[in-house]
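TL;DR need structure tokens for one chain.
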Amino acid sequence: MVFSHIASPHVLPSLADVWEGSYWMDDDAEPATDASRVVGNLTADLLIVGGGFTGLWAAIEAKQHDPDLDVVLVEGNAIAQGASGQNGGFVAASLTHGFANGLDRWPNDIQALTRMGHENLDEMEAFIADHKIDCDWMRVGEMDVATEEYQVEGLQEFVDVAKPYGEELIWLDQTETRRRLNSPTYLGALFDPDSVAICDPARLAWGLRDVALELGVRIYEHSKVVDLDERGDQVTAKTEFGSVVAPRVLLATNAFPPLLRRLKYLVVPVYDSVLVTEPLSEQQHRDIGWAGNEGVSDSGNQFHYYRPTADGRILWGGYDATYHFRSGFGAQHEHSSKSWPKLADHFFTTFPQLEGLRFEYAWSGAIDTCTRFSAFWGTAMNDKVVYVAGYTGLGVGASRFGARVAIDKLLNRDTERRSLEMVNTLPIPFPPEPFKSAGINFTRWSLDKADRNHGKRNLWLRSLDRFGMGFDS
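>> reply
TL;DR here they are.
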């Protein structure tokens, strides 16, 4: 199914009462904390900059490794106000932005990466249960649906390609796919029954925050770090009202403007948009099915991802990712309504039986994108600073692995993770502006063209593939 660039006027009433903000953050159940700003000069054994999933998992990992370690975490806003509370709530086992991307880039390590990814997801699930984190966690799997004939054969072949590496995938024909979730656009689906969970990501972040606090981590919110200064064996992180001095620092700032110059060429913020419907009626639920609550994505280069929520809504996102010139970042890009009518139109193309359903939430959130579409690690200031970034939209699950690798480096732990080629290489950097903007936008145009031409990639996309910068959803 090739989706339209232009929204039909009849879908606009569905957006009439939409609230511009993340569905996950519109929740009276957020637990209160007494986290204050950094004021004055503080010291720590380990400083973590960034209170997203990576920072929170890293703080927990460090304290579990050494309870006596004095860990300070500083967050520029409040916990879950960034990407942790603005994503779709998919938690994937993949550490490499999908098996195909990992196989293409790290064929020698893909067996270990696949195993570690499944272990990571299992351990997350056990941790959430053990600590009674109320985040609507459901291990439901994911369907990658074919909506064009040319996608069917590729998805079918992938079952045998992935099996030797430990990925147990199931091909569903059109009848079985539509029995699970009824859309006239579906021609079949590749079903991964065990490698994906869905959750409320904001509640997960708040739950991790509470665990970190119980372990003795000192958390300071609304304390944006504006500069790092290396002096001897210490690094000083300066904030508006104070500073934190530590011998070891983790930068876990995701898509936020980086504190290290080198990261400006390794990560760009790309804004992704999401809609959430009103709760479906009982009849609407019967009309579409979805008894298994599977996460879903379609198979285009510009793809949609969608899932049910615990209170009976549908979250629908993706497709129209936007890059703003000079890596534009900020709240002004979170309330851009340009993509929302297009997403609404695509929703009703997929589920015409839900015509008349209204959307109650809409937002756009930043994704930290790099040219290899998966996390990378590095060091600075004579190895006193470690950074991790580049998850490219699959960070809810992979961030725990990313945090553990970062702590391995900071505490000099000898682990299997540290030997991976993925961990010890960096992505190809983006060029400076205006070439960066031109390249990204031409790539988006080329991907859309491929979707409208039976998946055939033009010379530009084939060249990117050759140099390790190609995209595969």
